[in-house]
């Protein structure tokens, strides 16, 4: 698009129940902070972090959405342009895990079909209060064909890994897409190739 | 000899090695050989001479040294004098120093005494004050002069506690004790009286009295209580006013001018009322309670505000059927059944009202925030960073967690879903009702769709909520990018009917056509296209539509940018508001490019399915015109043009159709594509023909006519596209094979050859009069 200083730009949207630690994950990753007593997010928050992966400058645009129900219609509007979704739940809160199917329905309904979804179980620092076993979560994510990771925003466990792994996957996905697009159809973007467009054999 | 030797050694020692005798006595004694002795002797003689010279020089200095000695002797007595003076001076200094130290210690003592004296006076004053307060309070209370009494109490409260202790210890201790007791009793009594009087004044709604006692509270150290009691009074006023307003709402006639936004108006009245209260009473609070107290007052007021907002919003939800409408919309979105679908137009007024309600709330919250922030700033100017942070946090908490904010967030949440539905349904309608007036390049739906999108985003913007605005920008992007682009895409997929079959098709479809046009009555239906002419026009109109869409999106983005800048400059939205909007708008702008891509695809399609099948046969006719000609035929061609004139006429006719139906920009792109096509196709047929010398000349003439014509009809430079053909004409016009060398390589001058050497040979071979050996022999 513009001549800005990056090779890739990806939009990552964090979703999940209220209070599972979405904002803390984002703050930990972008600012290295764990703000205690973090208030509920209003609407959506917006953070940018540029990382370097194998010599490529990757700009991550991270949208941290409010988990509360009344912001749902705002957050839904961000799904479609997202390259990746981080679906977060709290391992010490059975309820937040039980809501996952509902979130998946939302993703199904609003997100692009090429979106990468990562399931994140946060707050592993509170191991003694764990309500959702790792095995259960893994089985669930496997059934849904999702990548699964357990994190602690507080202890900074796996947070960096979460975002950097995701960025890696997004890069390889993007590379594949441009490849496919270049071969099959001159139309960039949506991959809704228009079959009648098989002309231009003379330029 | 020995004496001389030792003298020499002595001198040598003093001279630092310069004149040391090189021979020791032992060495001289051991000498037995005559020549050696002689040599030693002469050396010693030389040395002696040197020593004598040195002695002489030293002796010469003797007089100067002596005269210096005399001067030094003369200085002696003076030095003694100076020494005496110095000793005297030192004595004096020591004395002065002692004296000064003595004085300064006395001054210190004096200073201490003075301070103590001051303190004593202060205490005496305080004790006097205390007495004065004791007497004063009694009198003031008796005279019902509560301000005076409170002032005395305030004085008493601000007195040093040790003073009171001190006065107790005095001789009149017991009296003071009694007085003190009286004073404390007076304090308690005054507190009770003020509270009572305040309550009475509140009940009677006697504002001057209320304010009077409100001012007394802080004097008695009852800041919190004063503020909370005063707020209570103000809240009651707010509540009463709100109740009246709500009753008025219930009585409002539905035909009233403001009926459609009556709830927004009611909220506005509520907010304005509170704002006025804050405005009026802020100076009193500031003056009598000090800065930084406004937060407490507003926190109390906000509770009442929330209570009233709840009532208004409840009424709004009930009367406007807000939740049911939302449910209805949700059902309509999920189910595709058209039977139960809610009419988008019905939503229009309620959507406008909700955004207005939110805008008013945002305005009010911003007002409160500004007031509290500036009050904190004054109050916290000396405070630590921690206190400031804590204040900031509590303010955020107040603003974010108040029921007003939450309620509005809820309403806006529903609004976004409904607005999205409104937009999508209305766009669908515009698409369904699409029509193209004759002579118009674009059809109605483009203008309509952008009008709708603009309206919806504009309405979201008018809510002053950045998140709401961004959400609607996102939804609009989705709507344009997927749904509406899909509509145009589908139309383009129908393709531009190939003209060769045009006549056949026209015959087949005419019956259907008649039936259909009777239904359509002059409008051409954009869904089922039966007639080829209509199909053609539809395709061209769609191309124009796509281009206009791309333009409109950029215009929309720019308009929104400046609108948002206005909103942000008024201080709405958080720190990231601008970044959020920018990002959402960037996504929208990207859609413009997708339309542009679609346009290019459509144009290529048009070129390959409509232009190429026609132009190709016309060009192929070139093959049927022999270019292997003699003088006679050449002249004949001169009189009756065999190919190029007809080709130009055909081309002109065909392009005229596109020129009329396409916007200038698209037509330009198309003619550029067509020109490229002509150049490529013509090249093919030329390579299939054979030429005589005059045939080459004929081709050159034909090419020049064609280029001259194309130059007049396109704005692009076409010379470049025809460069290869022009060079081929040049080659076909050569007298001899070797003449090519006049133009090739170092002789090419400004000409850049677009033909490869192999191609040059290929073209040369087209000339039947050129021998292939000559061509082969060429060194290119």
UniProtKB/TrEMBL annotation, chain A:
Name the top EC class: hydrolase
Entry EC no(s): 3.6.5.2
Q: Which GO terms describe its biological process?
A: Golgi organization; lipid homeostasis; Rab protein signal transduction
Cofactor dependence is on: Mg(2+)
Keyword GTP-binding set for record: yes
What's a Pfam family this protein contains?
Ras
Gene3D superfamilies per the record? P-loop containing nucleotide triphosphate hydrolases
Q: Which keywords does this Swiss-Prot/TrEMBL entry list?
A: Cytoplasm, Cytoplasmic vesicle, Golgi apparatus, GTP-binding, Hydrolase, Lipoprotein, Lysosome, Magnesium, Membrane, Metal-binding, Methylation, Nucleotide-binding, Prenylation
Give the source's domain of life in one word: Eukaryota
List the membrane topology term(s).
Lipid-anchor
Q: Record's GO cellular component, any one?
A: autophagosome membrane
Q: What reaction does this catalyse? A: GTP + H2O = GDP + phosphate + H(+)
Show the GO MF annotations.
G protein activity; GTP binding; metal ion binding
Q: Where in the cell is it found?
A: Autolysosome membrane; Cytoplasmic vesicle, Autophagosome membrane; Golgi apparatus, cis-Golgi network membrane; Golgi apparatus, trans-Golgi network membrane
Quick check: keyword Glycosyltransferase in the entry? no
Q: PANTHER family of this UniProt entry?
A: RAS-RELATED PROTEIN RAB
Which NCBIfam families is this protein grouped with?
Answer: small_GTP
Q: What does this protein do?
A: The small GTPases Rab are key regulators of intracellular membrane trafficking, from the formation of transport vesicles to their fusion with membranes. Rabs cycle between an inactive GDP-bound form and an active GTP-bound form that is able to recruit to membranes different sets of downstream effectors directly responsible for vesicle formation, movement, tethering and fusion. RAB30 is required for maintaining the structural integrity of the Golgi apparatus, possibly by mediating interactions with cytoplasmic scaffolding proteins.
Protein family: Belongs to the small GTPase superfamily. Rab family.
What is the official name of this protein in its record? Answer: Ras-related protein Rab-30
TrEMBL record, chain B:
Principal place of residence: cytoplasm
Q: Which GO terms describe its cellular component?
A: cytosol; Golgi membrane; Golgi transport complex
Q: Which residues form the COG4 transport protein middle alpha-helical bundle domain?
A: 183-493
* Entry's localization field: Cytoplasm, Cytosol; Golgi apparatus membrane
Citing just one GO molecular function, the answer is:
transferase activity
Q: State the membrane topology.
A: Peripheral membrane protein
UniProt keywords (A-Z) are: Cytoplasm, Golgi apparatus, Membrane, Protein transport, Transferase, Transport
Tell me, what is an example of a GO biological process annotation in this record?
Golgi organization
Family affiliation: Belongs to the COG4 family.
Write the protein's name.
Conserved oligomeric Golgi complex subunit 4
- Write down the species: Platysternon megacephalum
